[in-house]
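ok, trying the design again with the full structure, not the truncated one.
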């Protein structure tokens, strides 16, 4: 097995390498003056089982292009099998036509990755499970849930756990929220969120009685922070004792850090699927958990032809 990291999240790739006790393969990524990307693999990869780690996070287009170019380099270097390890799959939110004459960009990106020559994809908490079907190659979609469950058990004593209510910040996340709530035998509430326009969110109503409860908002992506900061304000207005959030991918664009800082949220817990800038690391309300053991174990299982779904049983 060989592990290769693009430039999108080298810290995570190093942590995965530590978990597996396999060194990262030496590569060079360079830029031409016009910003074209050039990649060179500095070690022999002929006949190797390659795991190429590159989330397609911001700058999404650069990181995606780098992933495609690295796959092409590996194909031409006669790698035997290439697994694109994409801890955060950007473009996932464009998974359907939202109006006339609009693209399904998630499908286009899936096509690009397969056409470039990847044989498999390994990712975490796809925005919608059915995006797996956009790939015509085997795709393993890992769940962040076990990492979050252990953390919640550590953070909440057996006594306070009884007051936990899991909250879906929109109707689209109800299945995901119900699934984690089941693990704690907890109730769920649902925020009736509307988007008057892209990038803006409004809370219309809360479905469920959150008064006196420790609310945990559960979601796959935090982008501008509007969804969860509005949801937290509405939950507090409805009498919630506390509001925290567990969210897999910290996209955290634009005003997100400021919104979280000024919000009713006690804490926002994210995974390290996306490399974070210093402003996020310095925010007291944001805590990052490692996904390296989860990804490392999945990589080990894929390399050994063992079941990946067993990880979640
Ligand atoms: C939407 O379906 C996603 O699950 C997130 O709720 C959304 O992307 C969050 O966006 P923002 O933080 O910009 O409100």
């Amino acid at each position: 097995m060989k592990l290769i990291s693009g430039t999108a999240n080298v810290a995570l790739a190093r942590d995965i390498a530590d978990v597996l006790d396999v060194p990262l393969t030496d590569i060079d990524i360079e830029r031409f003056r016009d910003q074209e990307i050039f990649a060179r693999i500095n070690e022999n990869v002929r006949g190797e089982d390659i795991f190429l780690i590159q989330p397609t996070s911001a700058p999404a287009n650069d990181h995606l292009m780098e992933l495609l170019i690295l796959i092409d380099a590996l194909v031409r270097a006669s790698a035997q099998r290439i697994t694109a390890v994409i801890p955060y799959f950007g473009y996932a939110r464009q998974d359907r036509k939202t109006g006339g004459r609009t693209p399904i960009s998630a499908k286009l990106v899936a096509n690009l990755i397969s056409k470039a020559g990847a044989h498999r994809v390994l990712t975490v908490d796809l925005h919608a499970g059915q995006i797996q079907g956009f790939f015509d190659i085997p795709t393993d979609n890992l769940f962040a849930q076990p990492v979050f469950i252990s953390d919640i058990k550590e953070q909440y004593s057996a006594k306070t756990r009884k007051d936990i209510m899991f909250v879906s910040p929109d109707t689209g996340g109800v299945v995901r929220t119900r699934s984690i709530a089941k693990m704690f035998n907890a109730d769920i509430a649902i925020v009736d969120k509307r988007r008057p326009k892209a990038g803006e969110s409004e809370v219309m109503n809360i479905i469920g009685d959150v008064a006196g409860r420790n609310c945990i908002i559960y979601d796959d992506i935090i982008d501008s922070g509007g969804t969860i900061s509005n949801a937290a304000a509405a939950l507090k207005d409805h009498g919630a004792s506390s509001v925290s959030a567990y969210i897999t991918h910290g996209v955290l664009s634009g005003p997100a850090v400021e919104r979280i800082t000024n919000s009713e949220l006690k804490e926002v817990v994210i995974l390290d699927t996306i490399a974070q800038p210093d402003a996020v690391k310095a925010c007291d309300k944001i805590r990052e958990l490692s996904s390296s053991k989860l990804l490392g174990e999945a990589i080990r299982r894929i390399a050994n032809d063992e079941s990946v779904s067993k990880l979640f049983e």
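Keeping the full-length input from now on. The pocket of ribose-5-phosphate is lined by residues 169-170, 172-173, 201, 219-227 (CB under 6 Å).
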